[in-house]
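Service request form, structural biology core

Requester: graduate student, group of Dr. S.
Request type: structure prediction, single chain
Budget code: on file
Notes: please return the result as structure tokens.

Sequence provided:
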Amino acid sequence: MIPIMAKCLPPLASSGQSLSTDRRIAARPVVLAAAFLLASCSLIAPPKPGAPEGSAPEAVAAPAKPAALEAPKPVAEADKPKTYAGSGQFLNQAPPSPQPPAGPEEASLNFEGLDVREVAKIILGDYLRESYTVHPSVTGLLTLRTIRPIPRSALLPTLEMLLRQNNAAVIREDGIYKVVPISAVRGSISPQLGGPQMPIPAGYTVLVVPVKYVGAKEMAKILEPFAADNTIRVDEVRNLVVLAGNQKELRHLVDTIALFDVDWLSGYSVGIFPVRSADVKTLVADLDKVFGPTGSSPLSGIVRVIPIERLNALLIVTTQPKYLDAARTWMERLDQISGTSGGSRLFVYTVKNGKAENLASLLSELFSRRGSTTSAPTLAPGSRPAQIGSAGMTDARGGTAVATASPAASASTPAAAATFAIPGSTGAPSSEVRVIADKDNNALLILASPSDYEIIETAIKKLDVIPKQVLVEVTVAEVTLSDDLKFGVDWFLSPRTRGDGSITSGQLNMGSLPTVPSGAVPAFTGLQLINRMGGDVRGVLNALGQDGRLQVLATPQLMVLDNQKAQIKIGDRISVQTQQQTVAGTSTGVINSFQYLDTGILLSVTPRINSGGQVTVEVNQEVSVPGTASGVAGANPDIAQRSATTTVVVASGETIVLGGLIREDNQRKTSGIPLLSKIPVLGAAFGTQSIVKRRTETILLIRPVVLTNVREAAEASEELQRRMPALQGLLPLKPAAASTTPAK
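Core staff response, request fulfilled:
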């Protein structure tokens, strides 16, 4: 507190006039310190430690992270703005000035040029009735005139004020008041704990005041203009302020501490606003233009914008909660996509319906700047050459019936992790993008700028759709060829062509068959598309079944996703010997190696749904029948195999029939007179031998049905249950309502 010196007044009496107890003059209270404090303080932060006196105070620094921000947040919440409204209070209520209680014991002091010892005798001895001593080095003349009487409790503070003018102070020690020089106070008094609600003892005292919310060093800078020299010390380790002075001075300083010791963080309003498109540093510079640079705007220190590059967000700190809305509005106006907006961020996109690695490959092909990855050229759907093989089968000319086609070159498959660049508006890449597929969580990790991510996200949402399903009904049957069917089912069902080349029926044939001379067998042409509708074929097959010439090998029904492969295997695994080694030192001397082979009916189907509602079906079918091993020891059995790989196109719900895999078996039959026909060499004269040829054809009926939603899939399941009465008691025909509703 600045010392208030008494002004010399004109003498009311002679210099030797004694103190009059009848004329009582009240001393003027010292209130300038509090008035000056309230008039000169603002709401901005105090200057930083070490700043020179008189320099302009800086805007408040960013507060420490609130406790609410320390807990980890989910990724979905990280992109949402968060605001924390403060109280807006940066000063406590000023404590009321203590008013001395009025009482009958009042005194008027009136003296001019009176010796210090005489003044101490009048106040301490005559009025207060206290024991006292005066140090010999304390000298000087004092002048005081009170206009109104002052209470007894104000006499000692008045004496302390007068003694301060002569660099003297009053201390109390062992019940005795001592008037000593201020320089002699050191070592004579013990510090006491002080606070706003704690009493301050009379006399010169040292108080230790804890500071809660403001740094002790900063608080000392606030107190220095209002305190005498060398009366304030700071303990930064414990955040304490040590004050020295008389009762009146200490009361003013303690009240000042209580005024400014406020929870600053709770007063500030803080907002965290994620930046979606623009660069963080660029956006801060733009907002500084709106709110004005530091030190040159009325809002300087009121609104503070801090870039948080780690979060790609802006931290806005303000003393007024309503300024957060204004800052957010301007930030959203300026946060626009630019052609070269920088600042890569990590985005996580959870794939809902597809596979993350497939989407990563598609994105790399779409946006790669290293050159696009293209597939090898192929024929139109349904026209690709078939791959057909039939082991152990011969045609009429005695050759092996084999038809093959070179497979198309496989396209290179991009990796699940790709680095590419998205072209900007000027054709140059705006930034490098990194996409990694997380197979475990079925998610995409995308490292890109916000502007590039918007382009990628739009593409992902169009690709990440609910996949369609296809119900594939397959019938694999074997027909014995005889009479009208001796040339095959396709020959029997093929339409006859007229002379003008037109087809006589509505059935579809892949092409007219060559003219075959009487008694000859046509050359094997491989797998043929016999009929698209399948109605006539089913009628013929039913008739063949009643005649005993049809054997149904398998009727699998497969539910498969669009463009996914489904497999079914019906048969046995047989062991075949692959290697034989002679090893010395073993019991048998021979080590045999075996391998298991799948036999029976092996079928794989891969449907692809076209935009027009048709289905492209890739079929890989194999029928293999193991024979008997020859009499040679260790010989493997022969395996008769018929396989076909082809691609056809059919509308949803229609049936196609594939045929043309013909097998011919030669069976030797012997008949004759019993016993005599068994005689070696001579037995042939008593019997006959004949070779019976048996020709069979394997045909496939394929009926794909496109299921676009869960309801259609449920209806297909009900239809399958109706066809199989044994399942009706195990599974409900009507699925639950929840199962027919697509998951959101």
